[in-house]
Amino acid sequence: MVRLAAVGRSLGVHLILATQRPSGAITPDIRANINGRIAFRVRDAPDSVDILDSPAAAQLSPSCPGTGLLRRPDGELVAFRAATVFSSTARPQPAEPACSVRRRGDPGGRLEDPERHDPDAPSDLHRIVSAARSAAAHLRLTPARRPWLEPLPVRWEPTTSPAGDLPWALIDRPQTQCQETLPWVMPASFVLVGAAGSGRSTAARALVQRLTARRTPAELHIYGVHDGRALAEVDAIPHLGGLFCHDDVRGLRALLRRLHDEVTQREVAGSPGAHPDLLVVIEGWDLLAGGRLAPQWGGITDPLQRLLHRGRAAGMSSLITGDVALGYGPLGRQADEVIALGLDSPADAVALGLPTSARPTTRCPGRGVLLSDHSEVQLAAPPRVAPVATVGPGGPRRLLPVPSSVSSESLQGGGCGTGPAWWLGVGGDHGEPVPWLPEVLGYTVLVSGPSRSGRSTAAASLARQSGGSTMVVSRHPSRSLAAYADARIVSPDEVETLIAAKRSTPRLTVVVDELDAVTGTPLEPVIRELIEVSARDQAQVVLVTESAALGSRMRGLDAELARRGVGLLLHPAADRAAAEALRARDVDGIPSIPGRAALVTPAGTTEVQLLAPTAPPSPPPTSPRPPPDRSGHQ
């Protein structure tokens, strides 16, 4: 400023400096290069001395606002009264004037009280500005160049053509007198931090909408995590491979598996450009898996963080939002750029390594600061009219949550490969029909679960699909086994009846309820023989046992079958001992609702919602059975 004042006089530059705290601000260089110095009433004499070299400004009466002192270049100190510019809110209006003003010699003539003015009339300052603008337009004067750019808009919508990079933020760089756009270039990694209401969810939604309007599903695959509302508007776009809530632990694990497979496939191929671009949007990192204090937090966030870092080289982009702690954590250090939104608290700015002066001066959604160079930025807002996402083939296979109920109609027409199969329900990562393949898993099905979990209904559903006669062995048959299975009921003491029925009907379906009570009875060797010949006769054997008994014993027929690691466990998260006995893995997060089970096979554990107790579905299609192998090999 001092240099501008020294050089500007010869160039016709007028410079006005103002301050409310003159103490220490008026330097000798300023006094030497400033022609005039003005002081209105100040509180302390030293302030007046700093400006005028005189304490007179501290002695001005407070009853005369606008009174000031001017120190002229020749050293003379001149008192003056500044003109008042009225406005509609300049001063309150008294009900009656404090005094009357009359012309001398005219007792009846009264002048307008100078303290009163029309609140609806334009102010003097407005009139002066309007007159100056009109005169400049009349004279066709060229407007003077502004020394600074217009401030960033409160709402910014980029106008771009479908070609080229997507601008998604506007950066203000006053030091270079320019405002430039921040493009989104794949692969990219950005982190948005801010409190609720700062615009981080809106920015994430706007980015997804603009990207999907420019790219086809074959060119861009998107996966998202949100609170159930932030990204709900984009749930139906064909680019979306999965959208999960923060507390959906099972869905988050399915997302981890999908991202792991995608990254591995691209790494093996060695050419990321040959695959669709991949974008992961996580709105609310601090809420994942129930929050930082939840027991599942590390089991979800740690592998996801490693996948995001590893996937960058494979062409994976990410936009992650969260609280301030996300900005200075590992993800913030790995990101291309961290944008801090809002920053209402100075402590948040300090935690991010920003000076408090770098906080945005305007508070509006989407306004933030780049942590890299402290530049102010305005993120792109969603279009007022949501763009239509491009459609076409090649979209990702959608990850779907497991439904809370399944009817037989939803399984009609589902294919399950070659050979016979029995429908269990709907489950897996893609919400598909889940069958029990007896030629792969065996004709013996172990069904376990706590009371009222639906294990009898599951056994009855399997028995109805066998297509043959059914016999139920139970002391207290449930309504599901007696009615839905449409079977003959015998007690565990009727061993000969069971043997005779098996001899007359080799493909007899046998359902044994309360298997844990069979150990040591005459029925146990019969059941063992039924299990041994089940594959030969293609006869279904369904064994039902209480999960508490399964998890508390090491001996018994049910414990022996559980050690094979094949079975159906209802409510697996409610009984960890039974899950361990059946070798079920990753059962955390499976809800304990009627019909929800884990299908345990050597290939892994699959969450499934079992069929509701209605009419049985149509038998799944089967392929012709291959001729028996006569070579002697099994």
What does this structure look like?
There is one protein chain. The protein has 634 residues and is an alpha/beta fold. Helices cover 26% and strands 20% of the residues. The strands form three sheets. The protein has a ten-stranded mixed beta sheet. The longest helix has 21 residues, at 249-269. It is elongated, with a radius of gyration of 40 Å. 36% of the residues are buried.
Low-confidence stretches: 615-634
Strand order of the largest sheet: 5-4-13-12-11-6-10-9-7-8
Number of strands: 23
Structure classification = alpha/beta
The largest pleated sheet is described as: 10 strands, mixed
Radius of gyration using CA atoms only: 40 Å
Helical run tally: 18
| Mean model confidence by pLDDT | 83
Distance between the termini: 95 Å
Shape: elongated
Proportion of helical residues: 25-40%
Beta fraction: 15-25%
Jot down its keywords.
20% strand; 634 residues; ten-stranded mixed sheet; elongated; alpha/beta; disordered C terminus
